[in-house]
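Sat 14:20. Reprocessing the chain from the morning session after the first attempt stalled halfway. Input below, unchanged.
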Amino acid sequence: MTELRPNLTAPSMDPPEASLPLERVRQVLQAGYTQPFLLVDSGIIREKYRRFVAAMPTVRVHYAVKANPHADVVKVLADEGAAFEMASRAELDLILSLGGRPDEVHYSNPIKPQSYIEHAARNGVDWFALDSVDELKKIHAIAPSANLYLRIDVPDFGSDWPLSGKFGAKADEIEVILDAAATLQARLCGVTFHVGSQCRNVENWRGAIKTAHEVFGRMKAKGLQARLLNIGGGFPVKLTKPIPSIEAIGRTINAALAELPGDIRIMAEPGRYLVSDAACLVCQVIGKATRDGKRWLYLDVGMFGGLFESTQGLEYELATDRPGKLVPWHVAGPTCDSVDVLVHDQMLPEDLNIGDFVYVRNAGAYSTAYASEFNGFPLPEVRVI
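Finished this time. Tokens:
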């Protein structure tokens, strides 16, 4: 398949990207600091949700809870009218505890433990993703009347965090899955895809929707009724690289969706887009060193405390209160594990010192959700304002 090259042009008429102001963070710090914390602004979450809906009014939003499963965050989105996408039993229990409707929860993890499928079905979840014949048979045996949707493999060129390989039925596998669904008389009635996390290439969505349309035709030929297209997640936020606005992405998606039959229901699973910009991870310098002529900076939070994605190439904007000349630093976390190095040659003020605060901007997604208490360091607090 031909790779689609990125188109990162965002018209200047589109609104600027939101971000939690550092002035607000500093106000909260006046009450004192005892450990790293993630400050989340619920107003920005609401703004992002409404902006997404305005950009793609025919697309039903199902928040990907895994991005930030804090109860207050989920409640804000529930109040705004969002539905949800779950990846585990714990996420479903959280959604239900906050009054979420199970009939509007989609279980999009393509491979699921049998007991989790049973739990979801018992609690009213009726939509399950799959990308293999084995998963199809597993779900059908537990919930034969469930609605199923097929995750297909699509290009993720231009995404900062590619997701192809582990999931997604390849072109030659789709036919086998469709045949198995027809034989079982399973209710395989939808298609889903993921263009890669933090996707900065709007053409990925256009191509993926076209491919899904083709799969719908193959489904119809086998007597399977197409009712759902789930365009997944991947909607980007502003970190350190230029991104297309959600409005620019929406224009591309809306045009592609116009080619689909009118009876196909459309949904998306934004996660990062809705919560990343709303938060700032606040941490503190706990040590400095010079090794082989290189400056090292040690923070009280690292890859095990919520910044795992930075070790995999995602570039956060780091800010401080120091005015000094910018020089390269190797930045590491507090644990004794040598892999706990966040970034090399990060440009930060030369005059940074122990006790100074470091602000990790736009870190509301996949940060505290990844955190563990490895080495006995506490999980960052989450403070929702």
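Residues 42-275 form a domain with the TIM Barrel fold (CATH 3.20.20.10).
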